[in-house]
Amino acid sequence: MKLTRRTLLVCATALGLTLPAGMTEALAQDKDLKKVTVRLAFNYNGHRSPYLLGVDKGFYEEEGLDVEVLEGKGVTSSMQLVANKQDTFAIIDPPSLMLGAAQGMPLRIVAQLYQVSPNAVISWKEENIKKPADLVGKTVATLQGDTTTTMLYALLARNDVERNDVKIVATDGGTRNQTFLAKRAAALTGFSNDSYLGMKATTEGDVDYFMYSDFGIDTMGDALAANTDTIEEDPEMIAAFVKATLRSYAYALEHPEEAIDSLIKRSPTRDKDVAVEKLKATAELMTSDVTDEHGIGYSDKARFEQTQELMAEFGGLTKTVDDVSVYYTNDFLPKN
């Protein structure tokens, strides 16, 4: 048997091995692959490592795609890049997409990965912050342009906490963490499957957290979104990307160490044990009664209606739609 690069990829996948990045790139050049980009909200991290794994394992290549996973500068920036067709896909939560659509961004979700939002308030244990009302008089460090910041305002309003009674400091990622660790802030916003676990490791367990979803802000989280023109013009590519991404997540959650190897290869300074913990914590966010019936990635109309109603009342959404299905489609999910 001739030992081609293609043969190597098939054998490596069957054996559960990861090929070097150079090899996968060379394979992409061997075939007539379609170039696709996916923009993350921020840096490479454990809970979004399945995209990197999918590239390394050749899952996207098997669907005819040459995928580049790109780091981002916040959800708003990622949405603009896809709206302008500079990127093919972005990782966006439904509340952010609704706000973008209200501003005229032609975006639509093609797979709803997180059925539960990971948005959380993380705080020093000594501050005894257990609920939104406990933030009164406190300083909260947030990320500029991040969904956790946008939804923090909704969380306060939903729980009758005056915005001006909480000092909210908007920063970039590095400054936010430094501000909190220097105890210039009592709390910071983040994800339960990311920032909380990172701070827990850094502070040796001296932090606590509560979920927005436990206090009336029960929205969803990570979703794959594309430009509506792209969806109409190239549905085969969209279906191929969704299929390979769902496969990547399924494999990554079964083999978290392998997925984090793909992350460490690109971000060598990451703590592998913490990154594995972040990926494992992602599994519980992806399932619900909805996915029990329809499968991973399904967008439920009732959940989108509830989210739009909440965003209109508490989240600053000034333009709503009568039919929320304009925000999403389930047409590209694999048929059970």
TrEMBL record:
Identify the domain of life. Bacteria
Which Pfam family is an annotated match for this chain, by its short name?
Answer: NMT1
Signal as a keyword of this entry, yes or no, is: yes
Q: Which reaction does it catalyse?
A: N(6)-(pyridoxal phosphate)-L-lysyl-[4-amino-5-hydroxymethyl-2-methylpyrimidine phosphate synthase] + L-histidyl-[4-amino-5-hydroxymethyl-2-methylpyrimidine phosphate synthase] + 2 Fe(3+) + 4 H2O = L-lysyl-[4-amino-5-hydroxymethyl-2-methylpyrimidine phosphate synthase] + (2S)-2-amino-5-hydroxy-4-oxopentanoyl-[4-amino-5-hydroxymethyl-2-methylpyrimidine phosphate synthase] + 4-amino-2-methyl-5-(phosphooxymethyl)pyrimidine + 3-oxopropanoate + 2 Fe(2+) + 2 H(+)
Instruction: Give the SsuA/THI5-like domain ranges.
Output: 49-259
User: Which N-terminal stretch is annotated as signal sequence?
Assistant: 1-28
> What do we know about how this protein assembles, alone or with others?
Homodimer.
Functional description taken from the UniProt entry: Responsible for the formation of the pyrimidine heterocycle in the thiamine biosynthesis pathway. Catalyzes the formation of hydroxymethylpyrimidine phosphate (HMP-P) from histidine and pyridoxal phosphate (PLP). The protein uses PLP and the active site histidine to form HMP-P, generating an inactive enzyme. The enzyme can only undergo a single turnover, which suggests it is a suicide enzyme.
The protein depicted here goes by the name Thiamine pyrimidine synthase
Classification from the root reads: Bacteria, Pseudomonadati, Pseudomonadota, Alphaproteobacteria, Hyphomicrobiales
